[in-house]
Amino acid sequence: MLDLICAYENYLSKVKQASSNTVASYLRDIRQYAEWLRASEDVAVVDATQLNISQYLAHLEADGRSGATVSRNLASLKNFYAYLVSFGFLEKTPVTDIHIDRGEKKLPQILTGREIELLLAQPACVDAKGYRDKAMLEVMYATGIRVSELIELDVDDVNLDLGIIKCTGAKKTRAIPLYPGALRALTVYLRDIRDTLIQSGDEKALFVNINGARMSRQGFWKILKHYQATAHIEKDITPHTLRHSFAVHLLENGADLGSVQELMGHSDISSTQMYTHMINQKLKSVYEKCHPKA
To answer: How many angstroms separate the Cα of 278 from the Cα of each of 15, 132, 140, 248, 272?
Structure first.
């Protein structure tokens, strides 16, 4: 069964050319499902029935997973079984007539301007790690890029003279400007710090870990959670929180929707319109709280 999952991974990355993040998400869901089938039902993936799949989704719900998470798992399984059918490993898919109630969709959490200032002030620029962390946080908030895009940045993607970074997404490359504070932090990191961290002059990665290798998603996540704690911010901050905050703060300060869409690399403007809805919800909340007749 592992061979089928590996074949699917190769199909996603080589044929579908899905992003590394998408591939990792699909494969994680499928491997967890296959392990549950083996341990709980003693059934192989190719022998699973609609009932097995329904039981697995019920298991996820009983385990406290959100409706969105369960729905994502169902989508992962649908795509996997569609692949197995298309390539002749199965005659028909067992994922039929299974529906998940996602419940009310929660709007993503954002940081206030004060919380952003607190977070960005946390890295102590007294050693290489502090300077590096400062540059990473500033770049994340300055550009609104995804964490996968941050760690995939190479030194050649930075133009300090123009004050921009070149970010290559799944479908296109975009140039994103840096505000002065982020440009200063990145300039210091590149000029004085990065060379002290890398082990080889051939290393292309912009941001590296203490071993001199490219920073990982998990590594940045740990860094962010550390500074959330030292800033005493009670919100549960993730790398995507900075991306959401970037978009909302731009719109609140007068940016047009099309420009924000371009900066964030959204292929569909409906993805960007979510942030307008967030602002409207915030204004409604303020109105209901503050208007004497509300």
So the answer is: 37, 32, 20, 8, 11
- CATH architecture of residue range(s) 2-86: Orthogonal Bundle (1.10)
- Domain(s) labelled CATH 1.10.443.10 in the chain stretch across 113-288
Residues whose CB falls within 8 Å of the CB of residue 235, separated by 6 or more in sequence, listed in order: 109, 111, 115, 228, 241
The DSSP bridge partners found for residue 159 are 164
Q: Residues 160, 187: contact at Cβ < 8 Å?
A: yes
**Ranges in the chain annotated CATH 1.10.150:** 2-86
Amino acid present at 145: I
pLDDT of residue 232: 96
Of 38, 28, 26, 29, nearest to 1 by C-alpha is: 38
**pLDDT recorded at residue 273:** 80
Q: Which CATH superfamily is domain 113-288 in?
A: Intergrase catalytic core (1.10.443.10)
- pLDDT for res 2: 62
Q: What is the pLDDT of residue 43?
A: 85
The C-alpha atoms of residue 175 and residue 165 are separated, in whole angstroms, by 6
**24 SS3 class:** helix
Element (H, E) at 173: strand 173-177
**pLDDT below 50 — which residues of the chain?**
none
Check 31, 65, 166, 266 and give the catalytic one: 266
Q: Please tell me the total number of residues recorded for the chain in this structure.
A: 294
From the centroid of its chain, how far is CA 80? 22
**Catalytic one of 99, 106, 171, 291:** 171
Active site includes 275?
Answer: yes
**Distance between CA atoms of 195 and 33, rounded to whole angstroms?**
43
The amino acid sitting at 156 is D
Q: Which of 132, 243, 244, 249 is catalytic?
A: 243
| Residue 266 is a catalytic residue | yes
Considering the entire predicted model, what is its pTM?
A: 0.65
Task: Supply the pLDDT for residue 102.
Answer: 54
